[in-house]
Write a structure and sequence with these properties.
- Keywords: Electron transport, Heme, Iron, Metal-binding, Transport.
- Residues 72-171 form the Cytochrome c domain.
- It comes from Pararhodobacter oceanensis.
- One of its GO terms (molecular function) is heme binding.
- This is Cytochrome c family protein.
- The structure is a single chain.
- With 172 residues, the chain is mostly helical.
- The protein is elongated.
- It has helices at 4-32, 65-70, 74-80, 130-138, 140-143, 157-170.
- It contains 6 helices and no strands.
- The protein has a domain at 65-170: Cytochrome c-like domain (Cytochrome Bc1 Complex, Chain D, domain 2).
Length: 172
């Protein structure tokens, strides 16, 4: 049963496997690593200016959330609602894992009777304003450390404002 033909097939299979991984490594390096030599790298250089100070200043552009909210599209926010409806409801008085979102815009942050809120949300303020909802929906765990909401957030400000517009329109 164990003759030279079987041994030859085993060695050929090992060589073919090694060759497959070597070609894969070469292809991955060609695609993902920057070029060397006279070629320009496919990455952006980071230019650091040394002004003698150790502190790094972070400059953020101020975004007028309310001006963008005036242009928000509630119909586009309806498609984003699918991320929320696993835990929330739009029917008044019907809580899920999370509280009902009926009338959430302008409502007190801990305003749903019978729902056990985490104290972390109270750090956002007293009411769910458009700005507070925008901040919270961007990254719930960062905006309210200790919150029980496990959603990772929406990175696009347009998506967040469209969702808020949908929540407000659906509550009317």
């Amino acid at each position: 049963m164990f003759d030279t033909m079987v041994l030859t097939k085993v060695v050929a299979a090992l060589c073919a496997t090694l060759l497959f991984f070597l070609v894969g490594k070469w292809a991955a390096e060609t695609i993902y690593l920057p070029a060397h030599g006279d070629h320009h790298a496919a990455v952006y250089p980071i230019i650091e200016e040394d002004d003698g100070a150790d502190a790094v200043e972070v400059v953020e552009e101020a975004v007028d959330v309310m001006a963008l909210y005036a242009e928000a599209d509630a119909a586009a926010g309806e498609g984003l609602w699918r991320n929320c409806r696993a835990c929330h409801s739009l029917e008044e008085g019907q809580n899920g894992t999370g509280p009902t979102l009926h009338g959430v815009v302008g409502r007190p942050i801990d305003g749903v009777d019978g729902f056990n809120y985490s104290g972390a949300l109270l750090a956002l303020g007293d009411t769910w304003t458009v700005e507070a909802l925008d901040t919270f929906l961007e990254n719930p765990r960062e905006a309210a450390p200790g919150t029980r909401m496990s959603y990772r957030g929406l990175s696009s400000i347009d998506d967040r404002l469209n969702l808020i517009a949908y929540l407000e329109a659906a509550s009317q």
